Structure of 5-methyltetrahydropteroyltriglutamate--homocysteine methyltransferase:
Amino acid sequence: MSAPTFPSGSVLGYPRIGPRRELKKAVESFWAGRITADELEATASSLRVAAAKRLVDLGLDATSGAVPGSFSYYDQVLDVVALLGAVPSRFASLTDEKGALDLAGYFTVARGAGEDAPLEMTKWFDTNYHYLVPEIGPETPVRLADDRVVRQFVEARDAGVVTRPVVVGPVTFLALSKASDDAPAGYSPLSRLADVLPVYVELLRALAAAGAPWVQLDEPALVSDSVDVPAAEVHAAVTEAYRVLASELAVGTERPAILVGAPFGGLVGPGEDGLDGLALLAATDVEAISLDLVKGAVPAGPVAGLADKTVVAGVIDGHNVWRADLAAKLDVLDAVHALGAGAVTVGTSTSLLHVPHDVEDEDWTNGSIDVRLRDWLAFADQKVAEVAVLARALTEGRDAVGAEIEAARAAVASRTEASGVVVPAVRERAAALTEGDFSRGDYAERAAAQQAKLNLPLLPTTTIGSFPQTPEIRRARALNVKGELSDADYTAAMQDEIRRVVELQERIGLDVLVHGEPERNDMVQYFAENLDGFAVTANGWVQSYGSRCVRPPILWGDVTRPAPITVDWSTFTASLTEKPVKGMLTGPVTILAWSFVRDDQPLGDTANQVGLALRDEIADLEAAGIGIIQVDEPALRELLPLRRADQAAYLDWSVGSFRLATAGVEAQTQIHTHLCYSEFGEVIGAIDGLDADVTSVEAARSRMEIVPELSEAGYARGIGPGVYDIHSPRVPSTEEVTDLLELAVKSIDPRLVWVNPDCGLKTRRYEETVASLENLVAATNAVRAQL
Ligand code: GLN
Ligand code: ZN
C-alpha cells in the first residue's frame, strides 16, 4: 500500500481548553467532586468533537488527517507517561493490572497527593506552557497501558472527521525525562528507548487498524541543542526510533503515515559538529516533516532523501498573535520548493496551543480593547483560516485567493501606519541613548552611600513583594471591574489592605517593608494596563499548565507611560512607617516574556522602550522618597534562546534593557532584582551583568547551592537566597531557616546576605505566611548573634 497524500493545509495542534475555558471548569469541578469522571469525559468528548468540526468549518479537510487530534486533559507529556504506564513507583498503586491510570489517578500524578509529590513541572521549550517532567529509571514499567489516543481517533471518525493523532515522539519524551530517584548516578532515561519503541509500534498498529491515515510524532528535541541530552545523542536516537517505527512497519497496513513535527526553531545544523537535523530526518522512512519557518529559516536545498517526502512548511506563526502577510508567506513557500521535497504543504510553526481561540471572542464594541486590533490579530481560528487560504493558493494558484491576499496585505499595512505603532518621541529618545544611560557608578561607592542612608542591620530581612491575595481583595477587584465598586472605594479598600500588611510586617519585625501588591491582578497585566502600546483581552486565554490559563497582554505599539503607575501606592505605604519601603516593579524582560509582542522590530528595541518607561517610573519613585526599588525579572532565564549560538545576543539586549530601566538612579538609591529559580547555568554571568545592588533568588529547595556558585563566579553584591519555599503551605521551623542561613553566610561575605522567602506570597494564606515570617525573623536574629 502506498502512503496517503498529506493534506495541503494543516495545523500542528489546536487549543484544548475550549473557547470559554470549558475544559478548565469541568476538570476543576471533577477535582472538587462536583462532577463524576463520566461527566468530565462527556464534556471533554463534546469539546473535542466541536473543535474537530470547527477546524473543518474553518477550511481543513475532514477526510485526510488534516485536523490534529491534539487533545489532553492536562498535559501532552503526561499523556505519554499514561500511554506507557510509566508512573513513578510512589504512584504505582494508582495503576491497574495493565498499567493504566484512570482519570483520577492521571490527575494525581500531575498534582500529587499528601506526601507524594507530583511530577515536577517545567517550561516547554521557549513557551510559557509548562509540561510535567517524566521520571524514568531502569525499573520504571513501560508497556502499552492506555488506549485514549485510539479512542479519540475513533470518536472523531464516528463524528465525521478523520483526525491525525498527535503524540509527543519517543525521543523527545525520553530526552525531557529526568532520571528517577532510584536510578544510578549518571543514568540517562534515553537508555530506555529500546523499551519504549515497541509500545509506539503497538500504538501505531492500533491506529492503522482504526483507519488513521496519518499520525504526528512531535520531536522538538531536534531544534534545541540545550536540552540536557547532547544533540549527537538525540540524533542517534532519532535515527534508531524512526528505523523501528517507520522502516520496519509497512505504511497503511501496519502503521499510519508519519509526520515528524519539529516546532520551536530551525533544525540543528548543518554545523561544524557534523549534525544536520533535516538531513537526518530526510534519511529516515517517515513520510512527512514539518519545519518551523517562523523561528527557523528555510534551509538551503536541495536535501537528499526529501524527494519522496512531504515538507509541511510551518509558515503561520503558532506562537504569536499577528495576522500574516500572506503574499510574503507564499514567497517563503516558493523558497521551500528548492529543498526538493516530493510535496510542499502549508502548516503552522508550532501547535496553536500557545495562542487564544478566536479574535471574535472579544467584545469589539464596548471600548475595552482598541478596535483597530481586530484586523491586525490572528488567534487560533484565524490562523487555521490563513493556512486554508495558503493551501488553496498552492493547489489552485495565487489568483484563486487574490482577495484574501489583498485583505491580508491591507491589514498588515494598516498596522504599520497606524498611530501609536511608531511614536516619534519614543524613537528619538531611543536613538539618543548612549553607553552612559546603561551604567551606574562604582558599586563600592553605591553600597557605602546606601548604607549611610538606609542604615540597615546585618542580614536585613524583607519579602519579595506580594502578600496573600485574599478572597476579599479579589472580590473588590472583580466588583471594580464590573463597575459595581467605585474607583475611590476600591482604592480605599486596597489602602486598608496595605495598612494591615504594613502593621503586620512591623509586628513581625521585618527590616525592609513592602506594600504587598494587593492592587495587582498580575505582575505583568497590571503594568500592561497602565502603559500605552499594550492591549489586554477579555477572553484571550492560553493554557499555562493543567487547568491554569493566562491572558497575556498584547504589546502592539511603541510603549509610553502616560502617568506614574505605582508612585501613589508606594508613597502611601511609606507614610505609614518609619522603616524603609521597597517600591516594586516588573522588569522589561518579564513584561515581554509574558505578553504577546509585536513582531515588526527586534525584541531588544521593544525591551528598551519598556525599559525607558520603567526608568521614568523609577525616577518618580526616587523623587518621591522611595529609597529601595525592586525590579523583578523572574523570566530572564525563560526567554533564553534554545540554541546556544543565539544566547549571547539575547543576554546582551535583555540585560541591557534592565540596566536601562535601573541605571538612572542616584548612588544612594538601592536597586533590587528578583529571579524565580535557582539553576543559573548559562545566565550566571548575566546575573552579575544586571548590576543590581541586591538580587533575591529561589534557594531553599536547593539548600543555598546558588550562594557558593555566585560567589565563585565573582558575584560580590547583595544576595537574598530564599530561605523557605513558598510553593508549599508548610511552615519552616526556625531551626531549618537558621540552618540555611548558616550555609549562606559560610559561603559568601555575610555583609552581602539578605534574608527573604523564595518568592512572593500572593498564593499563600495568612496563617502560614505569618508563622513562616516569624520564624524567618527569629532565625535571622539567631544567626546575627553568631556573627
Ligand atoms: N514581586 C512579585 C511578587 O512578590 C514577584 C513575583 C515573581 O517573582 N513571580 O509576587
Ligand atoms: Zn519569584
